[in-house]
Design goal:
The chain has 122 residues and is an alpha+beta fold. It has one domain. It has one helix and ten strands, in the order αββββββββββ. Strand 8 and strand 9 form a beta hairpin. The longest helix has 24 residues. The N and C termini lie far apart (57 Å). The C terminus is likely disordered.
């Protein structure tokens, strides 16, 4: 009986992990509006509207069709789903993005932005 419970728990845990990684692997796009300058990684974004695309472990900020910053991200699981899309800031730095209706959020890595037009493989 105990072996069966452990097996069921392990199966449930594996299914949950696969579902979470599959969701995180999908490309997610949101439009965000910054009302004041904000830092993401080592780039400063001016106030305005941006398209945020999160693809796996990378976030891209673009404006008017031009990529302005790329930032590594990590996915985290929250206890509750976010009620609405929101950005977390710390001293003018974008630290996290929460997706409406989802428990998953992305955490932006500080100081590791690839600016538009730069080659990160040098």
């Amino acid at each position: 009986m105990l072996g069966r419970r452990v097996s069921l728990f392990a199966t449930a845990l594996a299914v949950f992990a696969l579902a979470a990684s599959a969701w995180a692997a999908n490309k997610t796009k949101k439009t965000i509006t910054l009302r004041q300058s904000a830092q993401v990684g080592d780039q400063t974004l001016a106030p305005g509207e941006y398209n945020l695309t999160v693809d796996g472990d990378q976030a891209t900020f673009s404006q008017k069709g031009k990529v302005v910053a790329k930032v590594p991200v990590e996915w985290k699981e929250n206890k509750l789903a976010a009620q609405y899309d929101s950005i977390a800031f710390d001293s003018g730095r974008i630290t996290e993005f929460y997706f409406a209706g989802k428990k998953q959020a992305v955490v932006f890595a500080p100081g590791t932005t690839t600016a538009a037009g730069s080659d990160s493989h040098r």
